[in-house]
Every structure is written in C-alpha cells, then in structure tokens.
Design a protein that fits this description.
single chain; mainly alpha; two-stranded parallel ribbon; 2 strands; about 45% helix; globular
C-alpha cells in the first residue's frame, strides 16, 4: 500500500478555488467585500486565511490569542488568533493596519487576567529573526 503526499500549495489552490467559487456565487451589494470567520480547531485556520486572501477575502474575524469557540461546533477549540494572522500577513507583505507589538502585548495581558495560556501560537513561538 502506497500513499501520496500532496504538496501544501495544491491544498491551498483547492481551498482558494473553493472560496473563489463561493465568492462568485454569493449575492452581495455592489462593492461589498468578502469577509471570513475562521476557527483553528485542527490548526488549519491560518492556512485557510492564505487561501482566502488568494480568493479575494479582505476582512477576517479573529480573536486575541485565539480565545473563543463556536456554539454551533461544540468540539471547536478556538478562533484563529489575531496576532497569528497579523504576523503571517506582515511576512507576506499584506498590510493590515494593525500593530503586532500592541496585539501581542494585549494577548499577554489577557493571559495574565485569565490565568491561562491562550491557543494562539505567536507568543509561544515568537517571530522569525529579521
């Protein structure tokens, strides 16, 4: 029995195509942007955001530290972390208008207030060297 590993770019292309198809079929007022809310239950939210940008999504709903969940998906572990998306978009040269240092400071504050580590990855992994 053999298995084939599909390159990540192929998955991103498939996700982008799905979102592009969705974007062309959704009726929206002229000039309205595509917006997307992502959960990160299986650590695929950030990859899905890349595919969504490629498909024309311009607004993302995320949360500080990835806090939260979804009442419609009881096993959902959390939202995509705002700081993880901003870090990724900064690395891609995609402007967000958000200050990453301010976001990470806010996440640190939130973790201290809650007395718990939030699921976002950036505070644990830190950024790549410049």
């Amino acid at each position: 029995m053999s298995s084939t590993v599909t390159p990540l770019t192929s998955h991103l292309d498939q996700q982008a195509q799905t979102l592009e198809n969705f974007g062309t079929k959704v009726k929206r007022p002229h000039g309205a942007s595509l917006r997307l809310h992502l959960l990160d239950t299986r650590q695929t939210g950030v990859a899905n955001a890349v595919a969504a940008i490629r498909a024309g999504v311009t607004t993302f709903d995320a949360s500080l530290g990835g806090a939260g969940g979804c009442p419609f998906a009881p096993a959902a572990t959390g939202n995509v972390a705002s700081e993880d998306l901003v870090y990724l978009f900064d690395r891609m040269g995609q402007p967000t208008g958000l200050d990453l240092a301010e976001l990470t400071s806010a996440v640190s504050w939130r973790e201290r207030r809650l007395g718990a580590q939030l699921p976002g990855a950036l505070l644990r992994a830190d950024g790549f060297p410049a």
